[in-house]
Design goal:
elongated; mainly alpha; 2 helices; 0% strand; binds zinc ion
């Protein structure tokens, strides 16, 4: 059905994993009871790191799709968001 390239698939997987980890750290952070501040700060740092990682994964994925033109809109399932960039 979809001839998406292998690298795109790998980058997409990395992006999804990084985003999931980020979401998990956010849940931990926001759920955390407001007692030991040290743990809060550690979670905050972990959240920042996870966020940066997921952003980097997003950029890598988007850049690949943009340069490789392998981002077919139909291949994105469960998410109607479409990122389309015209190379000017
Ligand atoms: Zn590709």
């Amino acid at each position: 059905m979809d001839t998406c390239c292998e690298l795109r698939r790998q980058l997409a997987e990395k992006f999804a994993t990084a985003a999931r980890l980020y979401a998990e750290t956010v849940v931990l952070l926001t759920r955390y009871p407001s007692n030991p501040e040290q743990d809060y700060n550690r979670l905050l740092a972990a959240t920042e790191k996870a966020k940066n990682r997921s952003e980097a994964a997003a950029v890598a994925f988007e850049e690949h799709v943009a340069s490789h033109q392998c981002g077919s809109p139909q291949s994105i399932d469960g998410n109607s968001r479409q990122v389309q960039r015209e190379t000017a």
